[in-house]
Amino acid sequence: MTESTKNNKRKFQGVVLSNKMKKTIVVTVERIKEHKKYHKRYKIRRKFKVHDENNSAKPGDVVSFEECRPFSKEKRWMLVKIIK
Predict the structure, then answer these.
(1) β-strands 77-82, 41-51 pairing
(2) Which residues, other chains included, contact 32 with Cβ-Cβ below 8 Å and sequence gap of 6+?
(3) Beta partners for 79?
(4) Per-residue confidence (pLDDT) for residue 7, from 0 to 100
(5) What residue spans define the domains of the chain?
(6) Residue 2: pLDDT band with limits 50, 70, 90
(7) Closest Cα to residue 12, out of 71, 74, 73, 83?
(8) CATH dotted code for 10-53+64-82
(9) Got the DSSP string for 36-83?
């Protein structure tokens, strides 16, 4: 494998909503889409369960996370860094 094919993991930035589970945070990612016909822009919000090994992220933090192996039924993302 070449180096470019190894690292084609999806990466997102979002805001932490909850850290009440052990080693897991819930992060919401907000993006703006445009309607095909009417060209009105609207917001899409999606929640992700992210693995946080050290329980370091707090609600309100902006974090970066990427795709990884499955940790559980819904948790397939790993925390990369806390931005602010």
Answers:
(1) parallel
(2) 41, 42, 43, 44
(3) 65
(4) 74
(5) 10-53+64-82
(6) low
(7) 83
(8) 2.40.50.140
(9) TTT--EEEEEEEEEEE-TT----TT-EEEEEE-S-SSSS--EEEEEE-
